Predict the structure.
Amino acid sequence: MRMYDLIEKKRDGKELTKDEIHFFIDGYTNGDIPDYQVSALLMATFFQDMTEAERAELTASMVASGEQIDLSAISGVKVDKHSTGGVGDTTTLILAPLVASVGVPVAKMSGRGLGHTGGTIDKLEAIPGFHVELSNDEFIDSVNKNKVAVVGQTGNLTPADKKLYSLRDVTATVNSIPLIASSIMSKKIASGADAIVLDVKTGTGAFMKDYHEAKALAEAMVSIGNHVGRDTLAIISDMNQPLGKAIGNALEVKEAIDTLQGNGPSDLTALCLELGSHMTVLAGKADTVEEAKKRLTENLNNGKALERFKTFVESQGGDPRVIDHPELLPQATHKIELPATKSGTVSEIIADDIGTAAMMLGAGRSTKNSEIDLSVGIVLHKKIGDTVNEGEPLVTIHTNDSSIDTIKEKLYASISVSDHAVEAPTLIHSTVR
Ligand code: URA
Ligand code: CA
């Protein structure tokens, strides 16, 4: 087999066979096929797309390129959740104990934040003592005992994806649905889940700004999952503004605790209930989404979800007193309010720019190796559609540096107040299965 022939075939819009796809992925992973030939194939794929069968084979071959996590020692259907990324997305901290509280086993691997988006692992580390490195046996025991454990990424999962993603980054081939879908799904599948719930974001703060593109990505991922034997479902949700009100690590832990007590922001609560209900049904712990939602809502209100969060925190070495005493979480020295300069209705909160402002405060990493400050971040007091009076605070900035004029300007520039009535954006657009 020659790479040249594969490039020519894809250039001319023909379908690659399973063997050809495995030849290319294996050859690229072990260094036999050079970057320039793979670049050409990626660009041909960008223009010619891939069939559903090709997408599934590409994913399967990327999964096979590295280690795979074996979760078979955990009883029950293991359901994972993945979000395509947003700002202030605190859902995993809430969902993991919430669905565990109705018996869904959650064995989750999460990542750290980069750029304007935060990572679950960083957020968990804001809880004093919490550790995210568990041995494989500890991880499995923890899930069997408490139904929930969250660890940092370990092992050499999907090396083909790592290499391809870096190459796509410098060859203008990131933004291709078959390539994004296979990249995301290969990582989920290699992490061992039996079933997968995807939260595909759309809106100004999302990777897929346009609803139709988000839907095409969701359909592509659901098709791949089902092709490779993992029950997969996607919802398409709004990212026209940050999710919830808190952006920043310790601040989001506090927001998660509030939500688990039934006092969370309405959008964050609704999204967690929606994702959680689908996870519960896929895990076979409820027959219908309605029934699942009812039980999850009960557990937010009767303290069971919060109780599960406490067990989860304790079992990974964290200080459970943070639940009743959030002041034990890292605290910033200054809390600076930004007052509205006019009265009206909030019409825009540019999620990416709020995320970048939080990063500039130190809540996120500008490069992979930057240090982060777990205490800092931003709390929104208003969301799109809320009315505000001149002088009322729009946001509170939690910072350890009092000279933050550029950040204040950035925040003012990213929040618009209109004289006209504005509706809150629709939170959940559709479900793809
Ligand atoms: N996220 C991924 O993991 N892969 C992509 O290709 C794009 C976004
Ligand atoms: Ca949030």
Notes: DSSP finds 16 helices and 13 strands in the chain. The CA atoms of residues 211 and 232 lie 20 Å apart. The chain has three domains: 3-48, 79-324, 330-418. The pocket of uracil (ligand 1) is lined by residues 165, 174, 179-180, 183-184 (CB under 6 Å).
